[in-house]
User: Fold this.
Amino acid sequence: MARRLRMSGSVPGDGVESALRRHSAAMQAVASIVAVALTAVALVYAYQANVLAQDTLREQQRVNADQLELNRLARERFERRYASRVSWWIDMGDTGISHYFQGNQARIDRAKPDDVVSLEIIHVQNRAPVPVHEPTFVLPPIDNEAPWWLLSDIPPCTIVTYDLEVIGRDGTLALDRLVSPGLHLYFGDVTNGYWQLAPAALTKANGPMLLPIDRPLASVSRARIVGRSDAADCGESG
Assistant:
């Protein structure tokens, strides 16, 4: 009887151990599920953080690009503060451009080949508070020679009127080139910048105009001053 009691008494111990093993396995499974869930949540947050970081980086890059562009525009405006106050125009009077050029053409046609003849009456206006240095009018080449007219420095707040002259035999070619591609004014300012001013555009030049003084010119380099007056609204641009 006692032996049977001892044998039956070992059964509850085995049951407890088996229950503990099952409980441990269940806890490990729960822990694994929780770990997987936490990992998934961490991955979601990491992805969202990465997306936010990428968006922040792109936004910062855009802000930096905008700031660089603003700095460039401000620097360009500062560089052009004097040059943008310079302008020039052809005096066509009240006849209109068509009659004006017809009149010029007729006058040039009447000139002898070696006559010095007036090509254009041109006004140059300097509305900057500093002088314009080395102003030079240049035409596209005529027979591989570039007609040019070197002017004297133009004082601040001044309009100077010039009569550009050429030799008669070059007059018609020079007159044609005034229209297409046109006359350009090169000049420098106190910022040590050099500029090229076409009728509709101001651009930075690489340096001062290099005049072809070592070879004959296609036109007489002469610009007579025929008028001078004060320029209104004088000051810095921008």
About this structure: The chain is about 45% helix and 25% strand. The helical segments are 2-79, 96-109, 168-182. The mean pLDDT is 75.
